[in-house]
Amino acid sequence: MVQQSAAQEACVEALQAAESKQRTTIQELRNVERQIYDLESRYLETANPQGNALKGYEGFLTLSGTSGRRAQIKPEDRLFSMSSVTGGPRGPA
């Protein structure tokens, strides 16, 4: 009976350790997704509206000048944030 109790206790400790590691991993994932979202936002806001790595550079072929304003970020422009299964369209939770 004592051996079974010790085995159960070992299983409980292993489960608690796994749950703790899962919580840590989830928090790290959220932090990375927030960082990706923030960096993507900064890039999309400051990138040249005539072209960037995500939209292409066809805008440079036209003669229109830039207005100097920050670009409006559309959800479909968020290539990296939207590709995350857990991040979602509004950024990580």
From TrEMBL:
Protein's UniProt keywords contain Transcription: yes
InterPro entries on file: Eaf6
Keyword hit for Transcription regulation: yes
Entry's Gene Ontology BP terms: chromatin organization
Protein name: Chromatin modification-related protein MEAF6
Organism field: [Myrmecia] bisecta
Family: Belongs to the EAF6 family.
Pfam families per UniProt: NuA4
Subcellular location: Nucleus
GO cellular component: histone acetyltransferase complex; nucleus
Keywords: Chromatin regulator, Coiled coil, Nucleus, Transcription, Transcription regulation
Domain of life: Eukaryota
